[in-house]
Design goal:
221 residues, alpha+beta, two-stranded antiparallel sheet, 13 strands, 24% helix, globular
Length: 221
């Protein structure tokens, strides 16, 4: 699941699976100078509470850190051309955005995913649906939006701080919807790709639980 989700982002221009932007929200001076996650193979975690199961036998994602570009490269082992590069910016409150520049002739060439990272584990927060995003956009009048060809809003203007505030609010709303719908937040954890599936180690459990705790703290009600 983790690998499929990450690799799919590379082909998602103006998609409900991410937030589109016509402006660069992660210029070099805004990017994290150090990796928020240690480089290595990230594999899917199954389970809502310990004991967690790490699915390391398949679909893990190799993540490489480029210190000069301040980006991660997420590699698709089956097709290296589908690999993608993401610039990371902190949003505060335990949240980060990963921005990917998509090769497209559409204006929303920057696609953004929001995630929580703790230790050597992370979880991607699903993007809001079109209608929910439109309602939230109306509450952020200092961030400009336009609709793409499918009718989904994408960001066209606004200061970086105001855009970040919108993305934090969207993430909280998404987590709230998941909580209401009793949905599970999927996580990935550093492991060895190709190893046999196994119960999470003590350190992995601590990191996974820290991610889930951070997500829970964003939806206190």
């Amino acid at each position: 699941m983790i690998r499929k989700l990450l690799v799919a982002v590379a082909a998602l221009a103006a998609s409900a699976c991410s937030y589109g932007a016509a402006i660069d929200v992660a210029p070099m001076n805004a990017r994290l100078g150090k990796p928020v996650l240690p480089p290595g193979d990230y594999c899917e975690v199954q389970g809502e509470a310990a004991p967690f199961r790490v699915i390391s036998s398949e679909d893990c994602v190799p993540m490489k850190w480029d210190a000069e570009a301040r980006t991660y490269t997420m590699v698709d082992p089956d097709d290296p051309e589908d690999s993608m590069e993401a610039a990371i910016v902190s949003l505060g409150q335990g949240l980060h955005l990963g921005q990917i520049e998509v090769e497209t002739d559409q204006p929303d060439k920057y696609q953004i995913q929001i995630f929580i990272a703790k230790g050597a584990a992370f979880a991607i927060i699903p993007a809001l649906g079109d209608d929910e995003m439109k309602r939230l956009a109306a509450k952020h009048p200092r961030v400009g939006f336009r609709n793409d060809s499918t009718g989904r809003p994408y960001i066209v203007s606004g200061s970086r701080d105001r855009i970040k505030a919108f993305l934090v609010a969207a993430s909280k709303e998404s987590l709230g919807e998941m909580k209401t719908g009793d949905e599970t937040l999927g996580a990935g954890v550093l492991d060895a790709a190709g190893a046999a599936d196994h119960d999470a180690t003590r350190q992995q459990v601590r990191d996974i639980e820290a991610v889930l705790k951070a997500a829970k703290s964003l939806t206190p009600k």
